[in-house]
Write a structure and sequence with these properties.
The chain has 9 helices and no strands. The protein is mainly α and 134 residues long.
Length: 134
């Protein structure tokens, strides 16, 4: 189980609870089983993007929020030191995060339609799996 899957699962659970929904109710809304929702929330399985979109819609949150891509969430994580390693990678060294690069990425992401956003996330994920780029 990856840290990212656990993060997404935690965000799904927090958002569900904020809407005062049970796992069973959310499962019915997204046409999945209660067991599937429980696995998603614990980060035991990766949530398919089409299901993540249904979850986001059912919980009235953005996919960005569930993925941890909200600019406010990224800023808070950076300030709490949780993005220290990533900040160095983005800025090309161990200096503070290059906010302009992050802002450019966020602007580019926001300018895309839903399909474009999905493809951008897939491509970024692909790049992180290629040894030459990590």
């Amino acid at each position: 189980m990856s840290e990212h899957m656990k993060l997404v699962g935690t965000r799904v659970k927090e958002s569900r609870k904020a809407k005062k929904l049970t796992q069973k109710e959310l499962a019915a809304m997204i046409e999945k089983t209660e067991s599937s929702v429980a696995k998603y929330e614990r980060g035991l399985v990766e949530i398919p993007l089409n299901i993540l979109a249904k979850i986001a819609q059912a919980l009235d949150v953005s996919i960005n929020h569930l993925l941890g891509w909200d600019p406010q969430d990224l800023r808070a994580a950076y300030e709490q030191g949780r993005l220290a390693a990533d900040a160095g990678a983005v800025s090309g060294g161990s200096s503070p995060m290059n906010e302009e690069i992050i802002a450019q990425l966020v602007r580019a992401y926001r300018s895309l339609n839903d399909l474009g956003k999905e493809i951008m996330l897939e491509r970024v994920t692909e790049l992180t799996k290629i040894r030459d780029y990590t």
